[in-house]
Amino acid sequence: MIGSTDVVLDAAAAYPEIAGLRAALRRRDWPACRALLDQLEPTARSAALQSCAGELGLEEFLRGVLAADVTDAAAAALLGHHLIHVGWEIRSGQYAKHVGARQFDRFHDWLRRAELVLIDAAARHPKDPAIWTARLLTARGLQLGLAEARRRLDRAVAAQPHHLPAQLQFLQSACPKWDGTWEVAHEFARDAMLAAPPGSPHAVLVVHAHVEHIVGDDDTDVVRYLADDTIRAGIYEAAHRSIWHPEFRRGPGWVQAFTAFALIFTMLDDRRSAATAFAGLGTLAAEYPWNQIGSDVSAQIREARAWAYEEAV
Q1: pTM tops 0.90, yes or no
Q2: SS (H, E, C) the chain
């Protein structure tokens, strides 16, 4: 929608199941939550559970749900995500060198609490990808290593092939800021994209790997990096396999894919391609990966969108 100045970052605006789950949680209506979650396919279910992890006061409520039915996989996954969310809020999104020892202690305490819930849940429900997705977060935060993260990813994709929420979490672990290398991160992203059906949003992994590399490596010359013919060709290949593919649909992950391509095309100084990504989004967007560039995501997107549309109009 060319000309609009709005930027809507709330995932519930794009995914109605998230709005419905939030409303049911705020009413403390777990049967309504389950009715909604049980009808979702696994990717949408995992994304909805993670998106609602920040709702206030969930721990007591969900522990009550589990006390009544210890086999409730959705309640365990959501409780795990909630405890992880609380811990990560304490840690903040800063690099480790900017996080104090007391913050780390409290952060790890919350993650250990989450891990206890999720270990039991995984034993009861070994084929639930939402549980393994949450366990990828605890593996990263508790610094259990890339091999353990890979094991948990393998369990998630065994439950549902190409489970994007889990793959997005593993990509973070594969970056050098955690347990990986740039080679591992880029190879994983490309392999996951190529393995997924054409028209799926999985090419977002390729873009995320490039953005992480650009912002996370002080030795990277950004201009030279983005001028590399192989890198540029890979980005456009990714777009043709996802947002530009005729089979691309507005299912789980579509906002994240358009958002990532809008950023990388802006960074590539490609107005026309950026305009196609912004047009696909309309007023919607996701905070990540724009929040890796600056703190005022809405302002950045408005400015970049206006720039992209100058030539498109």
Answers
A1: yes
A2: CCCCCCCECCHHHCCHHHHHHHHHHHCCCHHHHHHHHCCCCHHHHHHHHHHCCCCCCHHHHHHHHHHHCCCCHHHHHHHHHHHHHHHHHHHCCCCHHHCCHHHHHHHHHHHHHHHHHHHHHHHHCCCCHHHHHHHHHHHHHCCCCHHHHHHHHHHHHHHCCCCHHHHHHHHHHHCCCCCCCHHHHHHHHHHHHHHCCCCCHHHHHHHHHHHHHHHHCCCCCHHHHHHCHHHHHHHHHHHHHCCCCCCCCCCCCHHHHHHHHHHHHHHCCCHHHHHHHHHHHCCECCCCCHHHCCCCHHHHHHHHHHHHHHHHC
